[in-house]
Each structure stands twice: as structure tokens, then as C-alpha cells.
Amino acid sequence: MDTGEFRAIIYDNYEKSGRSFPWRKKTGPWGVLVSEFMLQQTQTERVIPYWNRWMQLWPKPADLAKATLEEVLREWSGLGYNRRARFLKECGRVIAEEHNGRVPKTPEKLLPLPGIGAYTAGAIACFAYNYPAVFIETNIRASVLHFYFQDRRDVKDAEIFPILDEAMDRENPRKWYYALMDYGAALKKITPNPNRRSAHYTKQSPFEGSFRQIRGRIIRSLVSKGPASAEELASRTGTETPDIYKALEALKNESMVAEAEGVYRIGNV
């Protein structure tokens, strides 16, 4: 497909049915960074009330840095993947202490921050500063696969990146990526998911009964009911004691929980 035609179709859809989210409106780079952490593996509609509340509680990186991990996890509860909350708090601290409270402007300077990978670095730079980064996520990938790889399977992202680079609207990369994401999100509602043709496509394992569910229950219990022994946590969460110990060990290694004399509590990072 011709690049100009591709861009025209994407923008036409955006003008007619582009989505509106609070972090797309007038918000600073910190608000964009917070939104990108929350949006990782979480649906946009679920994120909205959390983002609004967080921006009221912690409108600047230094504000979040001063909060306890327990406070942060309490406000995060329900979003899942709790490590994101700890990384976000750590990001606030690093930005406040090492960057004078300003979110870095380029992917290269964003990448060293806690919890930030290639996609998140590119997205923050683009949406916060209109920086022409080339990055990919599920909706972007779906849009490109739909138009350029209709008869292919096992398409690698390495094949998609050059198309994104060529098609980018360098005068307004922020608007372009909003449009591309919105097209991909709409596409998956009306056609079989194009991402199934990606070499990187994997089905998420069931949450019910998973190790991730046990970890989440432990964090929720410690936040809502306070410190406890492993046996008490097993009782609170309805989990077998060996599984509790395994999950607690992993959470300790990630600084999510701390232990003293057999009693576990939320960590203090």
C-alpha cells in the first residue's frame, strides 16, 4: 500500500471517530508518563478513574516519590501487575532527584528510568513532547498488519518498524500515533484480531488460579489488613501455604514486601 494512502485512511478514521482520554488533553509530561505505566496491559476505560485520582493526589514526580509504597499500592489496587506501581514511584523519585522534576524528552534519556522499556520510552517522548519516535504496541501493530500483511503469518516487528518510520507524520507524530492506535483498537472490534498474524502474538495465560493472582491477593491483604505471618496470609487469601511462601519470596526479591521475624508487610522503597 502507498504510504500516503495509508496515512489518509488512518487520519480519516481519526477525524470521524478518534477517542478522547484525559491524558490526551492538556496535561504535562508527568501525566503522560503516569498514563503510560497504567495502560501497560490494562484497558483504557479501566485506567481513566485511576489516572484522574492519581493526578489529584500526586500531580508532580516529587509528590509520588514522597508517598509510601503502601499508599501507592492502595491507590493502584484493581489495576493489576502491582510492580508497575513500585516502578512508577521509583520513576517519580529519580525524576525529582536527578532531572530537577522534569520528565526527560527523548527515548534515550527515558530508557534508564525504572520500569521503562523501548515502547514506553518512545510513547512518552512522543505524547509528552511530540518527539518523532518509532515505537510499536498492540493497536499500532494491528493497523500495520491489516494493511500491509493481509496474506502473511509470523510477521516480525522488525518488518513493521520500517513501515512505521516511513509512514510517520513528522510534523505531528503525537496526532499520528493517536490516530494509528485508535484505528487498531477499532479494527479489533470488527475483524479477527490482526495481531494473530504476528510472530510475537501470545495468548495471555488464565488469571484464575495463577501465581500472579496469589501475589495480587497477598498485596491486597497486606494493604487492607496489615502485616501478617505466612500462615495468616494463607488463611486470609485461601491459598496453600507452600504457594504463599513461594509468592512471598518472589515479592521480597522485588522489594514489594519486607519480612522481619516471620511477619510480612509492604516494603518501604
TrEMBL record:
Known cofactor(s): [4Fe-4S] cluster
GO BP terms: base-excision repair; mismatch repair
Keywords, in A-Z order: DNA damage, DNA repair, Glycosidase, Hydrolase, Iron, Iron-sulfur, Metal-binding
Cross-referenced InterPro entries: DNA_glycosylase (IPR011257), Endonuclease-III-like_CS2 (IPR004036), HhH-GPD_domain (IPR003265), HhH_base_excis_C (IPR023170), HhH_motif (IPR000445), MIG/MutY (IPR044298), WH-like_DNA-bd_sf (IPR036388), WH_DNA-bd_sf (IPR036390)
Name recorded for this polypeptide: Adenine DNA glycosylase
Record field: catalytic activity: Hydrolyzes free adenine bases from 7,8-dihydro-8-oxoguanine:adenine mismatched double-stranded DNA, leaving an apurinic site
Domain of life according to the entry: Bacteria
Protein role: Adenine glycosylase active on G-A mispairs. MutY also corrects error-prone DNA synthesis past GO lesions which are due to the oxidatively damaged form of guanine: 7,8-dihydro-8-oxoguanine (8-oxo-dGTP).
Species of the source: Treponema primitia (strain ATCC BAA-887 / DSM 12427 / ZAS-2)
E.C. number(s) listed in UniProt: 3.2.2.31
Lineage: Bacteria, Pseudomonadati, Spirochaetota, Spirochaetia, Spirochaetales
UniProt domain HhH-GPD: residue ranges: 38-186
SUPFAM superfamilies per the UniProt record, alphabetical: DNA-glycosylase, Winged helix' DNA-binding domain
